[in-house]
Amino acid sequence: MIFRGISANLGKTFDIIKFRVALWFKNYGVGAETDLSLLMLGLKERCVDFGKAKKSKIKVMASLSGSQLYFHVNGSSRGKPGDAGIGSVLRDHGNKIFCLFSFSVVWLDCVTAEVLAIHRGCQLIVDNQLLNGSCIEILSDSKTAVFWCNDEDIRNSSLVIFVYDIRQLLLSLSGLSIKFVSRDANSFADCLAKNGSSGVGDRLEWSDFG
């Protein structure tokens, strides 16, 4: 029993080390003249699920150009820091769901998880050409995360590169915005994030776009 406890703690410590090393020693730069293709590459390289989740295929190749969509995102942590998860749901004004995800991430505090949830949502947006031309509001119930992503001063050095990605995407896509929403209006994403932090299994699902 003692050995299993030590082994679990060492595993979590190793995850944290990998996360920090990825932040500080990887080649993050996308150049002074950032274009969207380079930004997409950077977002994919820094995707917080590290490729663990299996992506389901989009069922119908129909464009959502011109649609108003809402990407509710949330981050959850079981400690300060603790086992963390991120979750999100993409819907339209009629509450039709197009995408949802729930991922576990390494030991993090809640605000860090909230920023990484926004970052993961951004990665999915640039990765899916069917969303090109859509007006998308990324909605988070973390005022701090929303402020940081919208060009406010950020004091968490480990999140600088993720926030930089997000800000560059906001500059590149005119129809994209990040806004604060109340917790009551973000309950679905909150449940998905809590599922992620509980370690029940990573998931990414796309519904019919038709």
TrEMBL record:
Gene3D superfamilies, A to Z: Ribonuclease H-like superfamily/Ribonuclease H
The RNase H type-1 domain, residue ranges: 73-195
PANTHER family given in the database record: OS05G0353850 PROTEIN, RNASE H TYPE-1 DOMAIN-CONTAINING PROTEIN
Pfam families in the cross-refs: RVT_3 (PF13456)
MF-aspect GO terms: nucleic acid binding; RNA-DNA hybrid ribonuclease activity
Protein name in UniProt: RNase H type-1 domain-containing protein
Superkingdom of the source species: Eukaryota
Organism this protein belongs to: Dipteronia dyeriana
Record-linked InterPro entries: RNase_H-like, RNase_H-like_dom_plant, RNaseH-like_sf, RNaseH_domain, RNaseH_sf
